[in-house]
Write a structure and sequence with these properties.
The chain is α+β, with helices and mostly antiparallel strands and 190 residues long. Helices cover 37% and strands 17% of the residues. The protein has a domain of 130 residues: Alpha-Beta Plaits. The chain has 6 helices and 6 strands, in the order αβββααααββαβ. The strands form 2 sheets. It has a 4-stranded antiparallel sheet with strand order 4-5-3-6. It has a two-stranded antiparallel ribbon with strand order 1-2. Helix 3 packs antiparallel against helix 4 and helix 5 packs antiparallel against helix 6. Pfam families: GHMP_kinases_C. InterPro entries: GHMP_kinase_C_dom (IPR013750).
């Protein structure tokens, strides 16, 4: 809503993709989205009520360099895992089943270790299971890991303490999955 003008999600995608690959978080639903070409393959639906405890592991990823890598062979090797993960997420969204979504996200997170390794992922998975969480997800080209949970089932303060005791994570955030896409919160008069 710069200068009081609204722009569409597709226009935002074009601008973002002119810089580097982007994700589909700007859409109003959970989508299957080609992060390199901007094609919207499928709208999956609305996200169920889930919270994410986000752990920033520190460090940084140069996404311009990362996106220059030829991952064709690695992605071919991961194809079965990715298809299984996607099937579970699709079924979970369609059936409003957070457990299936989290299971698919967890498969995807571990599969992504072949592309962008996160040393603490196994320990985070164990801690999340002990805390009663549903699963984990990762930034596929970043440094954060999310612990997926039903809102009232996990004590995030205890989870944070457990991670800090094991010296895992640089920063922690509590988030909620939403379906709003991008929204203009306010405009600033110039």
């Amino acid at each position: 809503c710069a200068l009081g003008e609204e722009i569409s999600s597709q226009e935002i995608v074009k601008i973002a993709l002119s810089i580097e690959p982007t994700d589909g978080t700007l859409f109003n639903d959970i989508v299957i989205f080609d992060h390199r070409n901007g094609a919207l393959f499928k709208i999956l639906g609305k996200a169920p009520d889930m919270k994410i405890f986000v752990i920033d592991l520190g460090g940084k990823v140069d996404t311009l360099e990362f996106n220059k890598k030829d991952l064709t062979e690695i992605n071919r090797q991961r194809e079965g895992e990715v298809k299984e993960a996607l099937k579970l997420v699709e079924e979970g969204i369609k059936g409003e089943n957070p457990e299936l979504i989290a299971k698919g996200a967890t498969i995807s997170a571990f599969s992504n270790q072949k592309i962008l390794y996160k040393p603490a992922l196994d320990r985070i998975w164990k801690i999340s299971q002990d805390a009663g969480a549903l699963g984990i997800n990762v930034a596929h080209s970043g440094t954060v890991v999310g612990i997926l949970a039903e809102p009232s089932k996990v004590n995030f303060k205890e989870l944070k303490n457990s991670l800090q005791d094991k010296k895992i994570g640089k920063a922690f955030y509590e988030a909620k999955i939403v379906n709003e896409g991008l929204q203009c919160i306010s405009t600033v008069e110039m």
